[in-house]
Amino acid sequence: MIKEFKNFVLRGNVLDLAVAVIIGGAFGKIITSLVGDIITPVIGLVMGGVNFSEQAFTVGAAVIKWGAFLQTIIDFLIVAFVIFVIVKAANSLKRPVPVAEPVIKECPHCFSVISIKATRCPNCTSELK
Question: 62 - beta bridge partners?
Answer without folding.
Answer: 59
